[in-house]
Structures are given as C-alpha cells and as structure tokens.
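From the shared-data thread, chain only:
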Amino acid sequence: MSSASDSLSYSLGVLIGKNLKSQGFTDDLSPEQFLQAIKDVIADAELKIQPQDANKFVSEFSQTAKDRAATKNLEEGQAFLAENGKRSEVTTTATGLQYEVLKEGAGESPKPTDRVSVHYHGTLLDGTVFDSSVERGEPAQFPVQGVIPGWVEALQLMKPGSKWKLYIPSDLAYGSRGAGGDIGPNSTLIFEVELLEILN
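Structure, as tokens:
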C-alpha cells in the first residue's frame, strides 16, 4: 500500500468483508449500494434507510437466511445419511449415528467418566474442513462427555488404537443453532476419529 490511509482503508474492508462473509451476507450483497451507504454516512448525507430501520431489516434478513439454510442443510443431511446407511460397511445405531470402522483397536472402551486422547479430522458434506487435530499436528484431549452427543456415543463403542469414520446427524451434533463459522444450522458432520488412548 502506498500510504497509511490506504492500508487502513483496505484493512477495514478486509475485516468488514470477512465478518459479512461469516454471516452469509455476501451472496445477496450489492457492493455498489454497500459503498454508497458508507459514503453517505461519512459525508453526513441524507440516508435512504435510517439506522434503526437498517438494524431491523438486517436482523430479519439474517433470520430468514438462517431458516433457509437450516432447512436446506437438514434435507441434504437426511438424504445423504439415507444413502450412506445402505453401504454394507456402515453401521447405523438406534440414535441415527452412522460409523465405519477403518482400523480395529483393542482393549476396553472408554467409560463416560474417562478422559481420552484422540486425533480427528472434521468435514462438512461438501468436504469443507472445519476442524482438524491432524492438520494441527497435535492430538486433542477431553472428557468423553465433554463433546457433542454423536462423539459421546461413538467414543464409548471404540477401543484404543481404533480409527472410525463418523457420520453424525445434526441432532447429534450442533442441531438447529449450528456452531458458527462453517458449521451452519442443522449441519450433518463427518469425522475421522482415531482413539489414541484412555488417559485415566
């Protein structure tokens, strides 16, 4: 950047842009109107929409978009799990959790009160990676009951040394609230989980 002013302006744009993208506004955003609103505010010009009305509109728009995404994610997840459950290598439990054994382990399974050390790699249905201890290069440690319900169930079925692929319906993950970031409302999650050891 040629000046501090340019750097500041671009930096603010980056921060605002990332915030808008994280909230799912970018598909419906008109850059021209967005920039015009900023210019009008800075110039103390007459605003086409008053701040209180803008707040109300954005809030309502955001809720509508969230509801739309929740319905879409739920339908896509249900369709995926219905097909995935037909594969012979996939086991579906009574709760709807699906898992595939990639590597067998040995020994006792963790109890609800245990702490465990695991490596995991989490993705959405489209392959987007939202979290991965594998990519960080450091195993995660936590109480068996300190994670989402799908994990709580799966961990108590696994044995140390085993590696499973979990297909977790939204109601056993973060449900209608989602978890922010890439994990939207009603998202079905896929994890590769390796149970390294029981720490107790």
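The chain is about 40% helix and 20% strand.
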